[in-house]
Amino acid sequence: MDKFKEFIVKKELTANEKLSRVFITLCAISLASLAVLFTMGTVLQMIGFFAACLCLYGGWRLICNFFVEYEYTITNFDLDIDKIINQSKRKRLCSIDLHTVTEYGKMTEDFTLGDGETFVKASSCNPELDDYYLRFEHKSLGKAALIYTPSTEILELITSSCPRRAKNNL
């Protein structure tokens, strides 16, 4: 029987990201105001208005990059992790064959990366939700560790799909 499940988790903004959004907004408004003020009453007034519009649009585009979601998709024994930015751009973070998982479990304070291990973070950064990790072998990443925030259904499918030799720290 084929397995298929999707789950989308929204990334919560950190304090630094919130501060960056405020800073970007203030900079965009300041640059737009300066562009209009310096060209007010001159022949270049239309160019100043156009530059102000570009500054505001650029600030809006930068702020939209902070709205991130992660999509976990399990199809049989493959786990695909996609990063969705502002519900418009999608980027594949990694594709994991669950047969290559060497260790999985719940995140604790004593979690550390191994030597030469690639780190893939696709978690919600929400303290109310539990984060989990997967250590796996990947053809292009080599040894890697994934931090993610699954639903109970996704977690059950991953647990049932991982090999028995994988160390379970649940």
Structure description:
The chain has 170 residues and is α+β, with helices and mostly antiparallel strands. Helix content is 32%, strand content 35%. It is built from 3 helices and 9 strands; from the N terminus they run βααβββββββαβ. It has a 5-stranded mixed sheet with strand order 6-8-7-5-9, with no helix packed on it. A 4-stranded antiparallel sheet has the order 1-2-3-4, covered by helices on one side. Strand 7 and strand 8 form a beta hairpin. Helix 1 packs antiparallel against helix 2. The protein is elongated and about 75 Å long. The mean pLDDT is 89.
User: What Rg do the Cα atoms give?
Assistant: 22 Å
Helix tally equals 3
Principal-axes shape call: elongated
- Note poorly predicted spans: none
Mean pLDDT metric: 89
What is the strand tally? 9
- Fraction in helix: 25-40%
Beta-strand proportion: 35-45%
Strands ordered across the widest β-sheet: 6-8-7-5-9
Distance between the termini: 26 Å
Largest sheet: 5 strands, mixed
Structural class: alpha+beta
Q: What series of H and E elements makes up the topology? A: EHHEEEEEEEHE
